[in-house]
Amino acid sequence: MIRLSQVSLASIALVVGAVLTVVGGVAYAQGNSTLNLVGFFYGIPVLLIGAALKSAELKPAPVLIEPTAEVLKLRQEQATPTQKQLRKDITCYRYGVSAHLEVALEKLGLGKLDEERPLLLGFYEQSSPEGRYSLVLRFQSPFVPVAVWQEKLEKIGRFFGPQITAQLSDLGQGVVDLYLIRCD
Fold it and tell me: How far is CA 124 from CA 73, 133, 169, in A?
């Protein structure tokens, strides 16, 4: 089932606007003034809105590892409301923001400037060694050293809510995996 949040509104507006504009142009060429007006008065603005949205569009974060049936069951049984909301937020199109989780990363003190802030490369879900649901966010973080991430782990756990503990894995070359693990 396709959720509306997984569809690019910018692409829909571009297609609808282009179709209406073409219909208006054809109607103009054929002397059909009513259809011509509808095509141009609606087509061109919708096309421009679609182009504006497309320029401000942030695509959903990719799933790096498809979840197994066991992990899907754990998500349904154990995921906290914050984990569910976070997953929902990074898997839909966003407009007018430069990066996923930019406000959260700024509040956590992970990069003061947009250029320094870690970039979300993707996410995956897994079962922790203790059998708990874990949402894992992979970041490209060339300007925030692993030591800074390590210092902020407790704050990250508190920030993402009760029943969450944060762990970090350094994958090298400025790439880190942030584990948000359900705890009791």
Answer: 14, 11, 14
> What is the dihedral sign for C-alpha 32, 38, 43, 45?
positive
Residue 93 burial (CB < 10 Å; 0-12/13-18/19+)? middle
With CA atoms as reference, report the closest residue to 136 among 71, 184, 47.
71
- Write down the residue that tokens 């990069």 correspond to: 111
Q: Domains in the chain and their CATH numbers?
A: 4-55 (no CATH), 58-182 (3.30.980)
Q: Write out pLDDT tens, residues 156-169.
A: 999 998 999 999 99
DSSP 29: H
> 117: which 2 tokens?
């802030």
Q: What pTM was estimated for this model as a whole?
A: 0.85
